[in-house]
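so i finally got all the pieces together for this one. its two components total, 446 residues if u count the protein bits. some of the lines might not be protein, just check the labels. i wanna see the whole assembly predicted at once instead of chain by chain like last time, that was a mess tbh
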Amino acid sequence: MLETQKYVETGLLELVVNGEKRSVMVRPADLLLDVLRDQLGLTGAKPGCKNGDCGACTILVDGWPIKSCLMLAVEAVGHEITTVEGLNGTPLQQAFVSEFAFQCGYCTSGFIINCQALANIHPQADEAIIREWLQSNLCRCTGYEEIGKAILSVISKN
Amino acid sequence: MIPFNFEYYKPATAREAVDLFHTLQTRDKNPMYYGGGTEIISFSRLYQLYPKAVIDIKGIPECNVLEFQNDRLVIGAAKTLTQLQESNLFPLLSWCAGRVADHTIRNKITLGGNICSRLPYREAVLALLVADCEVVIQRKGETRTEPLESIFNQSLHLDTGDLLLQVTVNKSHTCLPFFSTKRTANGDVNYPQDRIGYPVLSTAFMKNSGRIHAAFSGLCPFPFRSHELEEVLSDQEMATELKLAKAVSYLPAPILTDIDGTAAYREFVLRNTLARAVEQLEGVNCIC
């Protein structure tokens, strides 16, 4: 029979990040974004609004995009976390380069992670679905046209 | 970061969760059930919530069900809005849930969290209200089922420590004809969602045995279903103009004025939406 998981004070936790088991020391109230950046040095997930609005901190949890500023690190136990550092030269990343889909680059990792999930989950996504998914991320340089072209170029190959 | 700490528990059964809640309550831990956690995290970060303990319900099997069981669709409180939308087992619910926040956040927001939210909009509730759904509640020592409408009056009224486990909908109601709209300050929201924002007006209409059911969000400070208003909308003999005038008089509270729209503008949108709903649902009986 399963038992209640319990984290009542600061302690060691094992997370699976980018395919590797990693130990972190967390308070139960620590956010996954802070733990990834401060303890694991995975700074690809960016702190932007830290309020779930901008999407710069997006990561994958079991393949689905999640804003890591709205997830506790303890919630990630037993799940597979993927950050942009775990992608390693995917066709989508190449497409962002080819289509010049970034300007200042701060939002890029969040967009790439979200687009990667979209390409995996809906490889035949139509424009309406792409539009719906991409609304989760903000680009203050307003590079949306190029970002849209990048994801479309990957989806169209499917 | 959250500027204070809390204890985190993830029980494996509903009974354990409720027992734990009462135990933590007696220890002055101000416990809160934790579904997606988006609201608890956001408000805690701003010092507007101070739980000393949270009880994550995502490990409870009953909270993770999403399937037809006999003649009812059973939806666990921990199912995310995206899961509801992608499964499309209840198209009106997909529509309403699919317009909340943005897509990535809907991967985290749960149905239970949306129903119990402190925010005034709670748009997923609209589909549940018009579909006459029931809720399954875990209390200390018992599980009980009640019509949602009997305990949803502006918000969900649960006793301290009660846990919303599931929502169930009559299977035949999941494929009744519906009409649903959302308008924000920036315009209409189409489906799949093409713009994000709090609603000036969000609606769900469903036609069941010739009668139109109607629920609204964004209009008043809480989501609501109005039977008096439905009576007027369903009256085949009444002229449309008279219907609209009467319908507006049956709202349960004054219409909101805020940064997204004045009361006059909201009423204008409401009248137009009611007219469209009546027109769309006239003569339609089933979408299956």
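Chain A has two domains: 11-84, 87-157.
Chain A touches chain B at residues 1-10, 27-31, 34, 50-52, 55, 58, 61, 64-67, 69-72, 74-75, 114, 128-129, 131-133, 135-137 (CB under 8 Å).
anyway lmk what u think
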